[in-house]
């Protein structure tokens, strides 16, 4: 974190990620060959996927990943706030997701970029 926010005063820093799961399979609601042709509407697949993504945002927590070393009281507080079970807590060593760093904007900060490779 010191490299990402060098001017900040660090009090305490812990990472966590919430994994949610929708309760049903969206493909169960998509028409198949046995249904009437009128059920195939333009954009039906897009609507189905959009609905699934919206439902997932509000679905229950299936896993709470926390950085190793997070104090127990903080883990349990986050767990209560998310209405998750303590069994859903999983400690992860290191970064939780490298894809999050891929979106990190370093534009205008040459000190955060690798030198050009020729």
Automatic annotation (TrEMBL):
Name recorded for this polypeptide: Polyphosphate kinase middle domain-containing protein
Gene3D superfamilies: Polyphosphate kinase middle domain
InterPro entries: PP_kinase, PP_kinase_middle, PP_kinase_middle_dom_sf
Residues in the signal sequence: none
GO molecular function: polyphosphate kinase activity
GO cellular-component term (any): polyphosphate kinase complex
Domain Polyphosphate kinase middle: 2-104
One Pfam family, short name: PP_kinase
UniProt GO BP: polyphosphate biosynthetic process
């Amino acid at each position: 974190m010191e490299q990402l926010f060098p001017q900040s005063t660090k009090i305490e820093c812990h990472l966590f990620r919430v994994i949610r799961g929708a309760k049903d399979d969206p493909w169960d609601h998509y028409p198949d060959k046995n249904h009437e042709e009128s059920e195939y509407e333009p954009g039906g697949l897009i609507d189905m996927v959009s609905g699934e993504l919206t439902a997932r945002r509000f679905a229950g927590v299936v896993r709470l990943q926390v950085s190793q070393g997070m104090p127990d009281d903080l883990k349990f507080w986050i767990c209560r706030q998310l209405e998750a079970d303590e069994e859903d807590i999983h400690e992860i060593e290191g970064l939780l997701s490298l894809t999050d760093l891929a979106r990190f904007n370093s534009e205008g900060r040459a000190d955060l970029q690798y030198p050009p490779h020729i």
